[in-house]
Structure formats: structure tokens, C-alpha cells
Amino acid sequence: MVQPLFYLKESASQTAGPYVHIGCTPNFVGIHGVFERDLGAGKLYGEAARGQRITIRGAVIDGGGNPLKDALVEIWQADADGLYNSPSETRGSADPHFAGWGRSPGDMDTGEFLFETIKPGRVPFKDGRMMAPHITFWIVARGINIGLHTRMYFPEEAQANAGDPVLARIEHKPRVATLIARQDGEASYRFDIRLQGEDETVFFDI
Amino acid sequence: MKNILPETTPFFPRDREWHPPAFTPGYKTSVLRSPQRALISLEGTKSEITGPVFGHNIIGEFDNDLIVNYAKPGEMAIGERILVYGRVLDERGVGVPGALVEFWQANAGGRYRHKKETYLAPLDPNFGGFGRTITDENGGYFFKTIKPGPYPWPNGVNDWRPAHIHFSVFGHGFAQRLITQMYFEGDPMIWICPIVKTIPDENAIKGLIAALDMQNTIPHDMRAYKFDIILRGRRSTFFENRKEGN
What local confidence, expressed as pLDDT, does residue B5 receive? Predict the structure, then answer.
């Protein structure tokens, strides 16, 4: 016999289902009067926040090429100086005018999500090397049994992207392009997430 | 608050044979919504070890009372009155304080308040079907609601969901982010549900079934169900690198 370890097992994931909005963005689906506003809705920054304002649009696209109209997308990112607004951030205090977290249901007709945020600064990897600026995405929807994690990188950061230790982990180099947003205007980016098939987005087990 | 000292170590790896895989054709929608390429594994960086934390100021007075939070003044939702309570723990058995827990469900007849829902069972004018709360210093939470009914869904010809409540949970790191469903002890629908059966391990399914708790049942008022939610644990700090910038 050895000493038992007594670890619990994580609760198993289940799909968020088609009505995830009832719980997470009720005002968006017209259920008013319970929550004053939907959590994570609107701009991630306050007026006094530091950094460049950007918008990110995109859609989550299924294996048939159709945008999901019932997905829920969340983002998590550092502030303009590369600090996270989290108690687990040990390198300093993040910009108090920047939430770092946002949530967007896709448009009910087009499936398009929208985030109004700031461009994140660089954050160090475990060994101290700097990662390229990136935003972490988490996607849930009907038909997705466990939330999918991915990252969005910036097209104008080619040099930083080339040295990014996470992108370097992707063995099939053409797939790196699936994580790099397309600039489609001044301070405006397009980031489509393809769940399956050709140009399937890289998803991480983090 | 004790126990809330920020931890900065990576999380235990997810056991992906315990969770449902992405491709589960018995649940038809997963067929076109499941990645086919392998996930790229990545031990947590700052970007995943950190996560948003929500203050109690976002929680309204009746956010954890679904019996009244959508009801007209003086009225209440119709159905079996229940108290759902438990703790948010991590895999080490440690309570997770300050965790945001969101929940949503159908009404007693299995009808959701959602514009895309077309089931013929009627809406309850006094039931919205959602709420939220933040765990206390021990990771404890509770809410009052009515027991949801089962409802049919267009998957197989005659598929019905068991009675269930959806949960969305934030821990302390974005890598802990979890959405799951709670089922009810003794429900025969659990074991024939294609969504439940996406989970390959019977013990993992049992971990999602809330137990009837007569000890915490309030006589002449509401029965209690206990549902603990387990999030990923995280490593001890013994062997962490402490290079500059880490």
C-alpha cells in the first residue's frame, strides 16, 4: 500500500446548449429586468484606459462553412502594458480602467461577434521570453461538448509572431496563419474561427 | 479573506478521457462543430493562469432566487420548489472563494424563455429561468428555484433531455473556465440522453448528478439538492522557475 493522493476529478464538461444566452446574456435575448446589464457586454475599456482602441469582428464557422448563430465567445487579454487584471498577476497592477475580459453572443442573423477593446501589450512566457501580443478566446455553443480555447494574434506584429514561443509549438507551420487576424480597417480586425475542415483554427489544450 | 491568496502556478492537465470528446455523433450537432485536428497542448502561461474575478457588486438582491427574480410583485413561479446548494472546489479539494457561478434552466414544464424555443409547453409568466451568485470564503453557494421539467429536442426521433440546470463557472484562472449541466438523483432520463452519453466515463456522469438532501430540506417549504462543482486544481509552488519576468 501507498499513501492515497485524494485528488478529486474535475466536473465533466457539457455543452452550453442553444439557450446559453438565457443565463449569460439575458438582455441580449430580450429578457429584461433581472440583470441590469449583461456581464462582459460593451467596451472592455473605460475612457481613461491606456492603449490603442481596436475592434475585433468575426464569426465561428462550422464544418459546412456556415456561421454559428448560437455561439458565445469570451476573450481574456492583458492591458496595454502586458499586465492582466487578475489577482494572480504578480508583476504589477493592471490598468484599473481596463477589464481584460469580455463576452459576445453572435448576431442572431449573421453570427458575427464584436469586441471593442485595446491592443494588448506583450506578456512573458514561462522562461521569460516575450510572447507576441495576443488575445485568448474561449468558444462555447450547442454541439460543442467542451469549450474551445484559441488565441488571436496581430498581422502587423510579424516579427514578434515569428519569435512567439506558443506559435512555435505548432508543428504544421501553415496552420499558424489560422491564429492571425486580418486587418480590415484602421484599428479594426477580422478573426474568423473555423471549427472543422480546411483551414481549421488551431485549438489549444491549455 | 483567508484562502484567497492568489496562486500563480499552472493548472493540472485536463483529463480529456474524462470529459466528453468533441466528436460524438449520437449528439448530432457535434458532427459539424467538432475540430478534427489534434489540440495543441500548452502548459499554462500567464495568459491562462490568470483570469477575471468579479466583485459582489454585480450581484443583485434576488439574483439567486429564481422563484421570485422574474415574478410580478407578490407572485411566484409555479413548480417544485427546491434549494440547490454546494461548493465550488478544485481537484485538491480546496474551496474556490469568489467564483462567479451562473445558471439557467427551463421552467417546470420544460419550456425555456428564449425566442428560438418552440416547444408547446407554456411559459410561466413569473419565471425567467436564470440567476447568478458568487461563492463565499469556503467556496459555498446556493440558489432557490423550481425543478425544471424534461423537454423534447430535435436530435433523434424521440429524444428528451433529463431535467437539468446549466452551470457556467469562473474559477481564478481562465484555464478553469467550465460550462456543465446538473442532473437530478433518480431521473431515469439521464441514462438515455445523447448529451449525457457524450461523457464516456460512467463515474464522470455520476459526478454531475445532484443528490437529494433531506437534511437541508426546509420542512413545508422546499427540498434541497446538493451539487458540488469541481474545477481544475493547480500545482504546488515547489519547483517553479523564477526567472525574470515570470
Answer: 62
How many helical (H) and strand (E) elements, i.e. helices and strands, does chain B have?
2, 12
Query: Which residue of chain B is at minimal alpha-carbon distance from A85?
Result: B52
The pLDDT of residue B245: 43
Residue B44's pLDDT is 87
Portion of chain A with pLDDT greater than 90, in percent: 97
Q: A5 — contact with chain B (CB < 8 Å)?
A: no
| Mutate which: B1, B24, B27, B40, vs A, most A CBs within 10 A | B40
Residue B4 has pLDDT above 70, yes or no: no
CB A146 to CB B19 under 8 A? yes
Listed in sequence order, the residues at least 6 apart from B168 whose beta carbon sits closer than 8 Å to its beta carbon are: A16, A20, A23, A24, B101, B102, B103, B178, B179
Break chain A down into helix, strand, coil percent, rounded to 5.
10, 25, 60
**Catalytic residue list of B:** 112, 151, 161, 164, 166
Query: Which A positions 46-65 lie with beta carbon below 8 A of chain B?
Result: 62-64
CA-nearest residue to A206 within chain B is B42
Residue-wise pLDDT for B62-72, tens only, equals: 999 999 999 99
Burial class (CB in 10 A: 0-12, 13-18, 19+), B57: exposed
Query: Is residue B3 scored above 70 in pLDDT?
Result: no
Quick check: B32 and B215 in contact, CB under 8 A? no
Q: Largest Cα–Cα distance of chain B, in whole Å?
A: 61
Cβ under 8 Å to B: A residues 108-137: 123-128, 130-131, 134, 136
- Shortest Cα distance, chain B CAs vs residue A23, angstroms: 5
- Calculate how close chain B gets to A10, using CA atoms only, in Å: 5
Domains detected in chain B = 57-230 (2.60.130.10)
Q: Where are the domains of chain A?
A: 14-194
At residue B244 the predicted structure's pLDDT band, cuts being 50, 70 and 90, is: very low
Pick among 3.40.50.620, 2.40.30.60, 2.60.130.10, 2.60.120.920: CATH of A14-194:
2.60.130.10
Percent of chain B with pLDDT over 90: 89
Q: Which residue of B has its CA nearest to A135?
A: B47
* Closest Cβ opposite residue B114 in set A19, A84, A202: A19
Mean pLDDT of A47-52: 98
* B93 contacts in chain A (CB < 8 Å): 6-8
- Model confidence pLDDT, tens digit, residues A83-138: 999 999 999 999 999 999 999 998 999 999 999 999 999 999 989 999 999 999 99
